[in-house]
Design goal:
Blueprint (H helix, E strand, L loop, with lengths): L1 H14 L3 E4 L2 H8 L5 E6 L2 E6 L4 H7 L4 E4 L4 H12 L2 E6 L5 H10 L2 E6 L2 H6 L4 H24 L6 H15 L2 E2 L4 E4 L19 E7 L1 E3 L2 E2 L2 E7 L4 H19 L7 H14 L11 E3 L6 E5 L12 E4 L2 E4 L3 E4 L2 E6 L2 E4 L2
Parallel strand pairs: 1-5, 3-4, 5-6
Antiparallel strand pairs: 1-2, 2-3, 7-10, 8-9, 9-12, 10-11, 13-14, 15-18, 16-17, 18-19
Helix pairs in contact: 4-5, 7-8, 9-10
């Protein structure tokens, strides 16, 4: 945890900021290793955690390098008192995670300048440590095994919701939790990228799309498979093979130093050449870690360069509204040699 704090201090120096306020619960967990409600406040070499009495026992047991402040009334009020004791500061805050109402309350009491910042902690989190990668690998192993299990229990007449329940049950036996509510879709409903499972029954010769992820040690995995159930449809097999080729092309272009937008552009261009430009409904992928969607993101506007140690998903998809869709997704580790499919 201390090394993570050192990385943040380096970022704050670059931004010429004296202090930093963390309000996002996931980012607080990243530095502390426990989930609490409250805020973390860094000021020079002093580190404070402000929380409610319900977390007092947990905070006092785990935050031995921090100064805990238990707020019986308003956290914003205590933060103002704290800033008054320390003196005027240029304090950065997480602009993406602080509500306007909470910002007003803090600003009324805070002695110093509040500076909106975006992505400081997320940038640090995007490059994973060895222990984080190990957790993601284990999560991917469970997810891959679950996909194989689910494919084996399918039969004509089973519903999407029945497969959903079996997916959750399997993952919870082997992992700590699910990364997100599983997506299970049949037939024409596979054209819905984030459709919710229904009572729709599986029929012979139909597409099946299953998007699931296990969570191990608070770290997520994310995988999707699309295939034709009990019958061969030449049209869908061609689309499935095309999407698989798109994924291979993307993974081949994943290397340290390559910008996310460059990889996204190649896949968009290949889809356009094949006549599928209007059938691409989402970006190529995203980072994965403590959250199922985190930095970096594959999009045409992202100039973020890939770095060794980043973990991303590659999930090209081609969708035909009202007919069906195909998505193939794997979790990828960025290595010095290129992209490596996990596990």
């Amino acid at each position: 945890m201390e090394s993570r704090w050192e990385k943040l201090k380096t970022q704050l120096k670059k931004e010429k900021i004296d202090a930093f306020l963390i309000t996002d619960s996931t980012n607080i967990f990243y530095f502390f290793g426990i989930w609490i409600e409250g805020v973390a406040f860094f000021a020079g070499e002093r580190k404070f955690v402000l929380t409610k009495p319900m977390y007092q026992e947990e905070v006092e047991k785990n935050f031995f390098n921090w100064e805990p402040i238990i707020c019986k009334n308003s956290i914003e009020e205590k933060l103002g008192e704290l800033s008054e004791r320390i003196g005027p500061l240029k304090c950065g805050f997480e602009a993406n995670f602080l509500s306007f109402n909470q910002y007003k309350k803090i600003k009324e009491r805070f002695k110093g300048e509040l500076i909106p910042c975006c992505g400081l902690v997320e940038k640090i989190r995007s490059v994973k440590e060895e222990k984080e990668i190990d957790c993601i690998k284990k999560a991917c192993q469970v997810t891959k095994s679950a996909l194989e299990y689910l494919r084996g229990i399918l039969y004509s007449g089973i519903t999407e919701k029945m497969v959903l329940r079996k997916a959750v049950s399997y993952i919870l036996k082997e992992a700590d939790d699910v990364s997100f509510p599983p997506i299970v879709l049949f037939g024409e409903r596979t054209s819905l990228p984030h459709g919710k499972p229904s009572l729709r029954k599986l029929k012979k010769g139909e597409l099946v799309l299953i998007d699931i992820g296990a969570k191990v040690g608070n770290y997520c995995a994310d995988m999707t498979r699309t295939f034709v159930w009990d019958g061969v449809s030449e049209r869908w097999q061609r689309v499935i093979e095309f999407v698989k080729n798109l994924q291979r092309l993307a993974i081949e272009n994943i290397k340290p130093g390559v910008e996310c937008a460059q990889v996204e552009k190649k896949i968009r261009e290949r889809s356009k050449e094949a006549g599928y430009e209007e059938n691409v409904l989402h970006s190529l992928g995203h980072g994965v870690g403590l959250e199922i969607h985190e930095e970096p993101f594959f999009s045409s506007k992202s100039n973020t360069p890939l770095q060794e140690g980043m973990v991303v998903t590659v999930e090209p998809g081609i969708y035909f509204p009202g007919e069906g869709g195909v998505r193939i997704e794997d979790t990828i580790l960025v290595t010095s040699q290129g992209g490596k499919i996990l596990p």
